[in-house]
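Contributing: when you submit paired examples, paste them exactly as shown. First protein:
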Amino acid sequence: MMGMEEARKGIEKKMEKVKYKIVVISGKGGVGKTTVAVNLAASLARKGLRVGLLDADLHGPNVPKMLGIEDERPTVENGEILPVESQYGVKVMSLGFLLSSKDSPVIWRGPLKATAIRQFLSDVRWGELDYLIVDLPPGCLSVDTHILTPFGPLRISETRAGAMVYCLDSRRRIVTRRVLEVIPQGVTSLFELKTENYRIKGTASHPILVAENGRFFWKKLLDIKPGDALPVFEMGDAIMHASWQQPLSVETVVSISAAGIGEVYDLRVEGGNFIANGFVVHNTGDEPLSVAQLIPKVNGAVVVTTPQDVALLDSRKAVVFASQLNVPVIGIIENMSGFVCPNCGARLFPFKVGGGRRAAVELGVPFLGSIPFEPRIVEAGDDGVPFVVKNVEAAKTFEEIVERIREFLGDKQ
């Protein structure tokens, strides 16, 4: 197996062949970040540029679906993985290619996730590229969430770095691990998952442990369906036996529904997961941190947000993340900015308007533009077609955004 130093050198060598490296990030799930990443890659490729797209979302890799290549598989040649090339001229690498079926979810522990991302960078034959676009996932939990500790349940907002909490190890044993950090992330849209006796609120992309046919794996909150089985733990008392091999019980999901706007937190634990409101949930922030630390000299980050007033809070999280890793912020994109009526063409604003622009001004970063919400954009994604190749209003707007990104990077056309 390749050692850490050897892998690092391999990544540096591969990335030397990439002119511009861009990460697409957001402060919350459900803002259309993957849609932006896919269409940014497709738009650049349509201009004759050599483009790669790395899907770093290891819990719900959707890039293959959105490019119509979910049935493709990468090949290996001379010890290197050859990325799948889409009909839109984009080289793609995603864990979605390696799943046994389209519906297969993924279970990863922190160290394994870092290894997978490292392999996508060091072992994939990206070749000479003008652009490598990296799609990074977010995830947060509601302020009402309670974390299970040796002293009983503790509100996530009252949990502190250094505290000991319960988590599940690789052999399904309950063990205690140290909290690395707890970060308030402002206010955002939430979804509530309910079983017969438990419930939890979080963002659409937060991974929760699911059980099926004796296996455990992670699914994003909004990818979980009624009828799915989830392992649950009694939250009333502290767990006294760290040698338990199985959860107390398994419960069936009754419903998943929108839960309005609420305050959210990021929590990261040494063990990679923790027990919250009776469920086993995954750390937040692992993939973005891993990618940002592994890719040398990232040229910039594109932040995707929505028009609501809370856009400032969501964007601040992403901008701070980028600045802490010395990654320049290329700018903010406001997605779902107004609804275009398919019948009369009138533009309505059910999600308000201007939040992204105001966030950019407040945070002192460029505003790249607004993408309207169009039903045909959703249809295009489901059909595996980037909307930039369709005759939709958003295509022209998005081309202007792409030009601003290239201008920021000094990419002379």
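Second protein:
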Amino acid sequence: MDYISTLFSTESTLLEYQNGKLKNSSIKNASSRLLRCSFNGKLATVSGEKESSLSDLVKMAEEIIDHGEEIDYEFPRDLSYEKKRPRNSPFVDNLSTADLNDLASDYLNQAKKLLKGLSIDLNLAKTKTSVELSSSSGNCGEYSYCDLDLTVQVMGLKETEIFEWNRSLPSIPQSSEELDQFFQNFLVEVNQANHVSGDLEPGKYPFIFCPEILTSGLLPSFFSGISPSLIENQSSPLWNRLNSQIFSEKITFEEKALEIPFDNDGLSTEHKFIVKDGNLEMFPIPLEYSKKLNSRPTGNGFSGFPFSDFYFHPGSGDLRHWISNIKRGVMLIASYNLTQGNLVNGDLSGIISLGLMIENGEIAGRVKDRTCTFNLYEVFGTSLREISTDTQIEGLGRSLSVPWVLADDVEVS
């Protein structure tokens, strides 16, 4: 019987503040082991706590393997993994619980002074995660990463409506100055959004898509389009578009594989272009789809989005210049139901949950009670005007480097 064993260990410290007051603080250590076993074309998966012995989990797998899932692949053998740079931050590593509380208290005091009449909720969590892999064939490897998650939400009653605005720290900060800058930007944004702009009539407008909405809405649509299951059954519009142009030549997506050495199947991650100059260069092929798609596995057997890291190449645009030259448009930060359209085909539609109206070259307030509708392949294609020079790191665990995108003719209703 062949097996792959993966041990996940996490240490986390969480502080929760509601309406400016500490409500909860906790420190948790958690670990679990996942074992996948194969024998005679069958797969069994069992899990247990860190203390569960490998031999006990193998015995459990032996008891159920005859009733396991049928598979047409074998686990990789005789692999060695390249040592990757750890995703960490000495600044975050050295933060104690007392330091976290001091940071949170300082930010809450700043917010109370500037945001009169608004309640403020803040969560601050520090997490360290390690992943260890071993297999019956002798493959072994490990990696670790740390994260600092800062989420801020403000709410208040503004005349006849409830005002709500929230943001999360996009990536692990390397210094206190970087963390402070995020919070200062948040306060500025809340002040800009703390009144409703003039009515935005239905029509088509230029949109600035922020990294947050690209990560939560547009890119998941693209990832669905290159899903191996949809490529296999030919239900994706991209199933027969390999090595052809799908986006503007300004678009390049790259996996650099800088931090995570292996995927969930134990295969080495590798550098690759996903889209280069608008051309679709590859499909991410996990081990289980290799024979089905008659392609070698690409080291992309991950849960969620399929890459160990993701780099959306920047362009030459300047965000401030864009705003100053827009007569009437929208900066879209979040739409919590954007994927209610046809995600696979790139048809996206959702309420503008967090959005700022741009009028005569300035931020004029927030957009309220409006829906935006567009197609991903048009936004990254014929409607694409510019991509920003600046990028922002998004994601916890696996990072995405994403710019701002300016596109024309986004429908608002």
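If you have annotations for the second protein, write them as plain sentences, like these:
The mean pLDDT is 91.
The CA atoms of residues 43 and 68 lie 5 Å apart.
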